[in-house]
Design a protein that fits this description.
mainly alpha; 8 helices; DNA binding; HTH CENPB-type domain-containing protein
């Protein structure tokens, strides 16, 4: 448990009506008094909560996109970065940034592999 979470738990364990001494509790748990006060009053969220709130796609939507990309790859149709951006636009119903695909790939590097495709042979291209 993080120190800030332990300090918040200590505040929550106080008896009803008992005055909260943020300075004392913050010093006891080694956290900033202002951060403890803001988090307890609900003015400030943790970084993890803030990051989740700012994401274009939630966790389940990102998982669905990963599975869709893997299905395309199994069929021999690996999507381009622009295609992934378009898929995200369809899911989120809002435009994602230029670097979103790179960050998405970084978040899911254990499940997705990014590679450059080799050019098609001129003879094969003419045959198509």
């Amino acid at each position: 448990m993080a120190a800030i979470d332990a300090a918040l738990a200590a505040i929550d364990s106080l008896k009803r009506g008992e005055k909260v001494n943020y300075t004392h509790i913050a010093a006891e748990y080694g956290v900033a008094r202002s951060t403890l006060s803001k988090r307890h009053r609900g003015v400030q969220r943790s970084n993890a909560e803030r990051i989740i709130k700012c994401r274009n796609l939630n966790i389940s939507q990102e998982s669905a996109l990963v599975e869709y990309i893997k299905a395309l790859h199994k069929r021999g149709l690996p999507p381009t970065r622009q295609m992934v951006r378009n898929f995200a636009l369809e899911i989120a119903k809002k435009e994602v940034g230029k670097c979103w695909v790179d960050r998405f790939m970084g978040r899911h590097k254990d499940r997705l592999i990014s590679r450059w495709t080799s050019g098609i042979d001129a003879v094969r291209q003419r045959a198509d």
